[in-house]
Write a structure and sequence with these properties.
35% helix, alpha/beta, twelve-stranded mixed beta sheet
């Protein structure tokens, strides 16, 4: 039996400090589960002076990440620095030295996952990335192992806690977007520059990873249609409520007829759906398949300790392989499917998807306007399921809201381009896609 499995950590920020805290404070629990301790053999970070709130020996600290990578006594290298480079180079160098690696870097995996997974497969080493999606939710391992016999057909995910918190405050308290964002920043749920979160890019990074695991094909971040929540208004949340829906930022991936849909955008979902009840900073990921059916994974989606726990779970998993003598790893393929068995699939352009739509026009309050707008929609084979027109402002502009039946995105966009040019519509039409029984799987 080994005396210890030794790990080196590159990056001692929020998640890195959470990982170290768990490894230090739960040594006995880990030893009982693993059979030996996981020993922190080195930590690399440019800032070695800031107090992280955990007692460690200064002897293991360094500003040189290469000391971690090249140390022959270190079994597993953990990359928690974030960003693309030098994080990518450090991971590839560690893999090249036949070291197992763990990362929580979703942006890196979304952009360079194919290169990193292929390198790990060729080297016969393990790569763990449980912390890259969903914080403390064990979604990666569930997809790679627990659902390995499942033919996954759809994923719907609330995978950004910042956006979910903002939309929750707007829904529950009637706040405007700017107010809810300020609250999120004050409470530490949003960064000073929240662009990656509120613009949808963070969710798109995570969706690229999930779709890759689900469908056995590389999904480029460039192919994921992405909208954020910064254009959602309190008025649209009000009308969603009137129709029986709530608005969530959803990461959606679907497989049908050999093609993939991959998109991130604000989405209306029926209030009775479980995903609509996921509020605050929590995340949830719904997976539909042909054998198990529907599964839902729920929990804290970020934070030092939840994400740190996910990283440590990867360390324990890899350490078990090392202890049992499978020192080279590779028992579970890095991206769930064998590299040689992964098949490139086409990602549909957003113009080709079909959905239900919420449309809010700002139109003149005079006879015939509703008929004219409906006529334009009809020209593009867009059928209306319900209409709300509230308030009277003779001669002025009022909101005119419609819900459509299933329609093609290209047709809807062409119709709106035509409607937005007429003189009886004073502002660009608001479009929010809707998921429900008529649109496909029910999350």
């Amino acid at each position: 039996m080994r005396s210890a499995v030794r790990v080196g950590i590159i990056g001692f920020g929020t998640v890195g400090s959470g990982v170290v805290k768990i490894l230090v404070e739960r040594q006995e629990l880990i030893r009982r589960r693993l059979g030996c301790p996981i020993e922190i053999a080195g930590i690399a970070d440019l800032d070695l002076k800031r107090d992280r709130g955990v007692a460690i020996s200064k002897a293991i600290l360094t500003t040189d990440a290469n000391r971690i990578i090249k140390d022959p006594e270190i079994d597993i290298v953990v990359e928690l620095m974030g960003g693309y480079d030098p994080a990518r180079r450090y991971l590839l160098d560690a893999i090249g030295d036949r070291k197992h690696v763990v990362t929580a870097n979703k942006a890196l995996l979304a952009a360079y996952g194919e290169e990193i997974f292929s390198a790990a497969d060729a080297a016969g080493v393990d790569i763990g990335f449980e912390g890259s999606v969903g914080g403390g939710i064990p979604i990666i391992r569930a997809m790679k192992e627990g659902l390995s016999a499942e033919n996954i057909t759809a994923i719907y995910g609330i995978v950004n806690g910042t956006c979910n918190y903002i939309l929750t405050r707007m829904t529950d308290e009637g706040k405007q977007f700017s107010e809810a964002l300020s609250d999120a920043q004050r409470l530490g749920y949003a960064e000073a520059d929240p662009t990656l979160d509120i613009g949808g890019a963070d969710s798109a990074h995570k969706l690229a990873i999930l779709a890759n695991l689900a469908f056995g094909t590389p999904v480029s971040i460039k192919d994921i249609y992405t909208e954020g929540v910064d254009k959602v208004t309190a008025l649209d949340i009000f009308f969603a409520e009137e129709f029986g829906y709530k608005i969530k930022l959803l990461a959606i991936a679907k497989l049908a007829d050999g093609e993939i849909e991959a998109r991130v955008h604000p989405t209306m979902i029926p209030k009775e759906y479980l995903l609509s009840k996921v509020d605050g900073v929590y995340n949830a990921i719904y997976i539909a398949g042909t054998s198990v059916g529907e599964t839902l994974f729920y929990g804290p989606g970020a934070g030092a300790i939840p994400t740190g726990a996910a990283v440590v779970s990867d360390l324990i998993d890899i350490a078990r392989n090392i202890i049992k003598g499978d020192a080279m790893g590779g028992r579970v393929p890095p991206a769930s499917f064998l590299q040689m068995s992964r098949t490139p699939l086409t990602v549909k352009r957003v113009e080709e998807i079909e959905s239900l739509y919420y449309l809010r026009f700002t139109a003149e309050d005079r006879p015939g306007v509703l008929s004219k707008i409906s006529g334009v929609l009809g020209q593009y084979q867009i059928s209306i399921s319900s209409v709300i027109q509230q308030g009277r402002k003779a001669g002025g502009a009022v909101p005119l809201v419609m819900m459509t039946h299933r329609a093609r995105e290209r047709d809807v966009q062409e119709a709106l381009r035509q409607v937005n040019q007429v003189n009886y519509v004073s502002e660009p039409t608001v479009l929010i896609r809707v998921e429900g029984p008529e649109a496909g799987e029910a999350p």
